[in-house]
Amino acid sequence: MQAELAAQPAAPLPSPGAVAPAPMRQAWADLGLVALITVATFAVGAALEFSEWIAAHSKTYEAYQLDELPLALAAMLLGLTWYSWRRHRHASREMGLRLRTQAVLVENERHYRMLFTEDLSANMLADADGVVSLANPEAARLLGLPSAEAAVGQRIGDFYADRELWRAHLAALAGGGKLEPPVLTLRRADGKERRVIAKLTVRRDAAGISQVHAFFTDITALEQAQAQLAKTLAENRQLIQRSIQVQEDERRNIARELHDEMGQWLNALKLDAVSIRDRADGEIKAAAQSIVDVTNHVYEVARNLMRRLRPVALDELGLPSALQYLVDQWQRRHPTVKCTFSTDGSLEDLGEVANITLYRFVQECLTNVAKHAEAGEVRIALRRVDGTGEVELAVSDDGRGFEPRRATLGMGLLGLRERIEVLGGAFTLEAGTGRGVSVRGLLPA
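Above: the chain's sequence. Below: its structure in token form.
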């Protein structure tokens, strides 16, 4: 019956004329009828001398004052007329209130029916055994049924992929309350499985009979999209990791070529210039000395370039010593900024990829401090987290800072985050105007 009611169109609202007074012409017709009856009564009474006849026959009962009876009857008639008018007004107001209440109920029913049928979640009403008595179209679509009416009479438990789970849910709902299992697997009528989030509640109707309200939201497409996104993200991170590795290999090769080829040629050029300088005089000696000076400058530039491409100290001395050397070199170029570096725990077994990642992390942070921070102090801390074995690197400064919500990360910081996350780590940045910047990278053990 409820399913049939849900399928019926909403009843039309009552007409405002239903609570309005009778039309004027009907009122005049009624008044005319009352006047006609009054005149007819007067004419008949006058013709038959009805009053004289009553007076003649009532003389015998003069002691009972029956001659006062017409006046009393007239007063009672007026009273009954007033009472009838009062009851009519009260009944009209009551009827108007009932009609307005009915109109509101009909409108609310139309709204609730629209919300029920147009809801994007599957809604079902069932008895205590899970037999459906009412369902919306989304429930039929979710369960693979042709229409909402086809869901009536079906058991919710028949669509559970795990029937034992349904029995457990029924047992839990027997005492009332509600269940909100995180994820359920339902099997449609065509055998296909759908993943849903659910909410099951038990309420009692006006007759005290328990009813199960079931709400299911299909998240199958969302889970598939999340799985595809996770797969794509994993593939992208593999590509990024491979790209970073190729980049580091290319930097190593370029640094080696600069050292082996350019370094030898610069050294040979310098030796020749020194030999010429020691044997010549005058302008030739000055020119040879100039060549020596230029060669030394180019060699120093090449060494700095090789150091940036591939820090030799990282391969020869390990990460802590390489970072200390990097900090010392940076401090020498920026003597007005105090830069401190500290380590804690064993850091000798991190591996080449983690070593170069952490080295680039500090290198990029120091570059940003020099360019943007206007800081007076920089603190660098590298430690092994007790218990977990994770490696934490933190770089902070007391510079002018910035508002992260109003600024976009530069390519350097984005590259740092990618390097950290590609290794399964976590990257965090804390900043504020006038409060400096703190950057942290956490790598798994």
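The chain has a mean pLDDT of 82.
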